[in-house]
Amino acid sequence: MGKLELNKKIKKDSLLDSAFSLFTSKGINKTSISDIVEKSGVAKGTFYLYFKDKYDIRNKLISHKAGQLFDIAEKEMIKANITDLPEQIIFICDNILNQLCENQSLLTFISKNLSWGIFKNSLGNANDDDISFADIYNRLVSRDDYEIDSPEIMLYMIIELVSSTCYSSILYEEPVPIEQLKPYIYDTIKHIIRRHVTPL
C-alpha cells in the first residue's frame, strides 16, 4: 500500500471509528455529519469522498463491523481445524456470539440497525480493504463434499434466528442467560442446515 492509499485508509477508518462511537453513544438521529468529521479530525469534504450521508456510513459500518466479526471467527475456526460444514457454521456463530458478549455496544448497534436488505447489500459491496463477509460465506458453502439448496435462504434463516433470539439473552439474560440458550439455538441451526445441505 502506497503512502496516498495509506493516508486515505487512515482517514476512512477514522470516520468509521468516529461514527461508530457517536452512533453508539448519542444515537444515529442525534449524530450529524459535522459531529462525525469534528471527532475524526478531517474536513467535511473528506467525508463525502467516502460516504453519501450518515445513513450510508451506517450501512458501511454494518458491513465493516460484520466483516471483522466473521473474519475473526473464520481465523479461529481454521486454527481449530474444523472441516465439517455444520460444525463450521456452529463454530462461527458461537465465536461471533462470544465477541458480541464482550462488546455489547456493537451488539446494540448491529441489532438496532441491521435489516436483511442492508445486510444483503453489504454481501456484495465490501469496499477497498474491508473484509468481505460474502467471501467468507462463499468459502464455507462452495465445497465439493456437500450439495447446498438455496444457500442465501439458509444464511437468512440462521442470521434471523441468531439475531432475534440472542439480543435480550446477552443484554438482559432473558428468557435465560446466553450460555443456557446456546444449545437450543445450535440445535435449531442444525435443523436449518439439514434442510438445505446434503453430504455427497
SSE order and pairing:
Blueprint: H1 3-25, H2 33-40, H3 44-50, H4 54-79, H5 85-102, H6 104-113, H7 116-123, H8 133-141, E1 146-148, H9 151-172, H10 178-196, E2 197-199
Antiparallel strand pairs: 1-2
The order of strands across the largest sheet is 1-2
Strands, count: 2
Main β sheet profile: 2 strands, antiparallel
Mean pLDDT: 88
Helix content: over 70%
- Structural class by sheet pairing and helices: mainly alpha
Uncertain segments? none
| SSE run | HHHHHHHHEHHE
Beta-sheet strand percentage? under 5%
Counting structural domains, the number is 2
Give the number of helices. 10
| Principal-axis shape | globular
Radius of gyration: 18 Å
Distance between the termini: 42 Å
Entry keywords:
200 residues, 2 strands, Arc Repressor Mutant, subunit A, mainly alpha, 2 domains, single chain, two-stranded antiparallel ribbon, 10 helices, globular
Overview of the molecule:
The chain has 200 residues and is mainly α. It has helices at residues 3-25, 33-40, 44-50, 54-79, 85-102, 104-113, 116-123, 133-141, 151-172, 178-196, and strands spanning 146-148, 197-199. It has two domains: 1-51, Arc Repressor Mutant, subunit A (Orthogonal Bundle), CATH 1.10.10.60; 59-199. A two-stranded antiparallel sheet has the order 1-2. α1 packs across α2 and α6 (104-113) crosses α9. The protein is globular and about 55 Å long.
